[in-house]
Amino acid sequence: MLKRVFFVIFTAAVLACHASPKTQPIVEGVTNVKPDEQQQLVIKEVVNLIESYNYKKIQINDSISSLILDKYIKSLDQGKNYFLASDIKDFEKYRFTLDDDFKNGDLSGPFYIYNVYAKRLNEYFNYSLAQIKTKFNFNENDTFVYDREKMPWAASTSALNDNWKKRVKYELVNLNLAGTAEAKNVETLTKRYQNLQSQTSKTNNQDVFQILMDAFTESVDPHTNYFVPSRATEFNEEMSRSFEGIGARLQLENEVVKIAEIIPGGPAFKGKQLSAGDRIIAVAQGDGEFVDIVGWRLDATVSKIKGPKGTKVRLKVIPVGKEMSSKPVIIEMLREKVILEDQSAKKKVKTITTNGKEYKVGIISLPAFYADFKAANAGDKNYKSTTRDVRKLIDSLKTIDKVNAIVMDLRGNGGGSLVEAISLTGLFIDKGPVVQVKDLRGKIEVDEDENTGVAWDGPFGVMVDRLSASASEIFAGAIQDYGRGIIMGSQTYGKGTVQSSIDLNKLVNPNMLQKIASIISRDKTVGTSPSSTTAADINLGQINLTMAKFYRVAGSSTQHKGVIPDVTFPSVYPMDKIGEDTEPSALPWDVIASSNFKAVANLTAVKAGLIKNSEQRVAGSLDFKYLKQDIADLKKRDAEISVPLNEVKLKAERDAQEAKSLARQNELRALRGLPAIKKGEKVTKQDSFDFIEDESLKVMGDFMQQSGNYVMNLGNTTQQF
User: Do 113 and 212 touch, CB atoms closer than 8 A?
Assistant: First the structure.
């Protein structure tokens, strides 16, 4: 297993800087967002961590400073719709100073840049709101340039006005084409802009700091990431596939929090007091006073409703269908641990016929490599994990469904826990090496499955695509190197680096946390809080730091190149837009020596036949024909930067596209014996067809038919499929 890396406690202090942070310039006309003491400490510690422990062994210097500035500006205004040329010229003074500023805990420059952006954004909202009631001529042959990225920065606000006005016109054209009345469209767009302006005005220093830190860490490498406390919580919940709360997904609509979905198994689901569409207007902790949350940011509301299991929360709710002026209903419930089953491993069984013989194939869909490490470390024997879930599914597929083969669907699986990737591989191979890890010192560690035996010893396949990354590539690469199964799909993402999650609170001297708390308490406005801030209230966030690189058991890195499937299909995703090889700061591909592993089968001869049969089917497949057309159309659209504003012309273009899409859809439905659909008619989920999965199952059918061409050696057993 990957060995834990322990750090010496950092003793850096906010007040023990090389130089004091500079005074942040004030931007007139907006509420200026400023960094706090925690963020000043965090930026210094992150610089220290990256310079000391990042795999690249990189120094934060003038060159990195320049990259950060460009990436930060681009993240705020990629389309060059808000900043002026004079703003960009003004920002040049920070090009080669951010490295030194960060080491000193000085964030005044980036926060000043954000405040200028906020001012320009507010100008855009105000101007656009004034233009919405303009009597536009929708018969003119003008165009809206929606992509100005390669154009020069505007010389003045008035120079942007024409484009902003055309954007408003474009949005009104879209509403017109939806068939609603012009007066209603003006009202709809006005509310849309007012809501956007309101939510933008709620941006806080944590939001700005997250944008800045994304620009900083991505300039170093694409997978070193810092998370502010709220984002760290989201990341860890996603990794564990669980959280503590009431079990409801929320969304913001017109400044009011609405329940979008009730999560099965949670308190809200079991209590049956809440429904999708209900609106929450106030929250109380236990028997405490209600706090009105109308107009709050969504994340602030979520943090109020979530809480430790066993604690009580009360909600004031306006039921769905009732007017906002209606008397609210008070709902009380105890928070529980909510398991996100819909984001966990699932199974289904498909029957295929190959040359007159029927086979049952179990398909396990795995969205990520997850594990609830907190529960596991606490001794919970039923903690949530990928391997535990998949093992149960395999047992069911074997004993109840009695399948002939299993396929692991890793499409869209961006990775997750390295430990889970190793243990999951162990369900399909006998004990042995699974992945090699090289740390920043150049030391290579071979991580093995140490458990004898397998959960499934029959025919096996793995489906991957361009979004399959990291742990998915470890698993698919090991299955391929061992000859344990057939890999099907398109070339994977190519992320071959290992990140360690580090809680920054655990690195900083507790005395420093107390000192920060004292500063915050001293600087609080009188009357804003009844109690002082303590060290326990300080949360510095989390960094996922790239500290190692992983290699397949045969020695090849998956970095950049990913895993090349045995049987390759055209990619649904653009290969030149998505993937590690599109990231400028990514580490290169390389090779180390092979580990001492023993392949369980040689599938070389089998693969040749599978590839030939699949290529013949794909060549004659209408689904793949249309996929190739879509790829070509996407490349064509990618080169476009503008759209017509003539309503008749735009409608004709969209009608032609819809007619083409409908004709194509009905042609495919006819092939499957389904009735044709009419314009505007929705396709049911039952009628959806996964042609990538279908071709993968056909490959598995061919695989099983070639049972005499290979022998599988799994531990003490020898299988001839």
Answer: no
d(C-alpha 596, C-alpha 543), whole Å: 34
Neighbours of 399 (CB within 10 A): 8
Sign of CA dihedral 528, 531, 534, 540: negative
Tokens 């009735």 belong to: 675
- Active-site residue list: 470, 481, 495
Cross-strand bridge partners of residue 362: 349, 406
Bridge partners of 445? 437
* Encoded amino acid at 633, one letter: D
As a whole number of angstroms, the distance between CA 417 and CA 384 comes to 12
Among residues 185, 39, 55, which one has the least CA distance to residue 549? 55
Lowest mean pLDDT among 111-115, 333-337, 686-690: 686-690
Q: Which residues of 247-270 are buried (b: 16+ CB within 10 A; e: fewer)?
A: bbebebeeebbbbeebbebbbbee
Residue 490 has what DSSP assignment?
Answer: S
Pairing of strands 405-409, 357-365: parallel
d(CA 25, CA 114): 11
The string of DSSP codes covering 203-272 is --HHHHHHHHHHHHHHHH-TT-EEE-HHHHHHHHHHHHTEEEES-EEEEEETTEEEEEEEPTTSHHHHH-
- Where do the DSSP E strands lie in 552-669? 567-568, 642-644
- Rounded (to 5) percent helix, strand, coil in the chain: 40, 20, 40
The upper half-sphere exposure of residue 171, i.e. CA atoms within 13 Å in the direction of its Cβ, equals 21
Alpha-carbon gap, residue 707 to 332, rounded angstroms = 60
Q: Which amino acid is at 141?
A: N
| CA angle 269–273–275, rounded 5-degree value | 70
| Residue 516 contacts residue 14 (beta carbons within 8 Å) | yes
Task: Count Cβ atoms below 10 Å from residue 65 Cβ, excluding itself.
Answer: 21
Residue-wise pLDDT for 254-292, tens only, equals 788 999 989 888 899 898 899 899 999 999 999 999 998
- The rounded Cα 58 to chain-centroid distance in angstroms is 26
| Residue-wise pLDDT tens digits, 586-612 | 999 999 999 999 999 999 999 999 999
**How big is the chain, counted in residues?**
721
CA nearest neighbour of 82 among 130, 34, 119:
119
What is the Cα–Cα distance from 540 to 506, expressed in whole angstroms? Answer: 9
For residues 115 and 655, which has the higher predicted lDDT (pLDDT)? 115
**Contact residues for 357 (Cβ-Cβ < 8 A; gap 6+):** 705
